[in-house]
Design brief:
alpha/beta
Length: about 230
Amino acid sequence: MVKALSFNPLETNCYLISDKGGAVAVVDPGCYYEREAAALEEAIESAGLHPVAVILTHGHPDHVYGVARLARKYGIPVMMSPEDDIILNRGGELVQMFGLPAVDLGFTITHVSDGDSVKVGALELKAIGTPGHTPGGLSWYCAEEKLVFSGDSLFAGAIGRTDLPGGDYDILMDSLLHKLMVLPEDTLVLPGHGPETTIGREAATNPFLEPFNEPLKEGFDGIDPITLDGLK
């Protein structure tokens, strides 16, 4: 099961992915308002879920605001690529750029790399290295649920920006074409901002992937939407 929430002025998507036994991982908890953090905890506890990990797609501040609070409250590990340590530690530059508050970095990172897996009860999330937006960008693929958390690498009809420190357009395009577009086309894409999409839809219509667009296969009928809960 997946529940989606939207946090902070940059409308960063946070996801809860849980198995039938109630184990849950929190993907990109970007909540920094007290009411947002409280709403995230309420979503976890009202459903009887048991957090096992925080999963980060990358280290930009808008994706990590709520990490320290969650790690302390639930005593759970925080998974991120070591290549994004520099992004996490230089977050002060970005929050000044966007006029946002500083990030509480009072947590320890458990480093994971391309090909590593994290168990969430009966589910498995596989880390797919998708650098380009940041040096250590990871997408997290769950084959059982046919979905991928793409962070800020791939969006519905767009791709991640590469003009921030550590970004690289050529590397991002290589990540998209050789790491994400090779997933099954009915894979649900849950991005760091904006609405969900599918690999098939982006392969067929994403203007940033031209001239590589491929037609959708006959009979492919789109996606089952996940509703974002606005918490601004």
